[in-house]
Amino acid sequence: MTNVYAGSAEYTVPTIRKKPNSPARERVPVFGIDLRPRAALLPDRVRSAPITLDYELMAVQDAQNAGYLREIQDLAAERAALGTAGHDQATRLRVEQLEAALAAATTDAAAAGVAAGDVDRAVEYGRAGAYWADRPAHRYLGRIAQLTDEMGSRLTELADYRQRIAELEQRIARTSPGGA
User: Fold this and answer.
1) CA dist 104 to 98, 99, 107, Å?
2) Which of 31, 38, 143, 153 has its CA 20 to 30 A from that of 171?
3) Distance between CA atoms of 172 and 180, rounded to whole angstroms?
4) What are the φ/ψ torsions at residue 18 (nearest 5 degrees)?
5) What pTM did the predictor assign?
6) What's the CA gap between 96 and 141, in Å, rounded?
7) Is 108 left (phi over 0), alpha (psi -120 to 50) or beta?
8) Which helix (H) or strand (E) holds 76?
């Protein structure tokens, strides 16, 4: 088969790397799968185009769903941590409170439109003893929450750096000749 787009700058092959310890020094695609034949069919302007869809409303819904799933999973895990052995009155009361809160949280999640499968998985993971922070029941919502937390940390760190820069600028202005 002839590549009719050969020589066109618009149709370039994705980056590949060489295997470091390979006796044949074979060339392996970056992602482990040779995407070149398929990717070469797409122009660069399409393959590397930025996503333009506005995810703002979906982001709000995803954050809400992650909140429901986290609450459900953590309540189920907390209940599982208490076990089924004989308990004193305070522990029995806590078990009843956790079970009532779990039932209310699952009802609220369903009413908010969280998929039943996602709710069931959160309950299942929680009952197995896994808290959301350790193993989120929803892979993508867990990852989004993790990235959001990381972004928040970086923004806080950036604000701290900006504050320190402003303080240093003030010190320099006070101590430099001709300063206030």
Assistant:
1) 10, 9, 5
2) 153
3) 10
4) -100, 140
5) 0.63
6) 29
7) alpha
8) helix 56-82
| Residue 123 token pair | 């309950």
Q: How far apart are CA 109 and CA 113, in angstroms?
A: 6
Number of helical H runs and strand E runs in the chain: 6, 2
Question: What average pLDDT is seen over the chain?
Answer: 83
Cβ-defined contacts of 144-147 (< 8 Å, 24+): 144/62, 144/63, 144/66, 145/63, 145/66, 145/70
pLDDT at position 3 is 41
Residue 73 scores a pLDDT above 60: yes
- The residue assigned the tokens 């369903």 is 110
Q: 15-67, pLDDT tens digit by residue?
A: 545 556 655 555 555 555 666 677 778 888 888 888 888 888 888 888 899 99
Q: Which two tokens stand for residue 113?
A: 């439109």
86 conformational bin, left if phi > 0, alpha if psi -120 to 50, beta if neither = beta
- For 137, the token pair is 């029941």
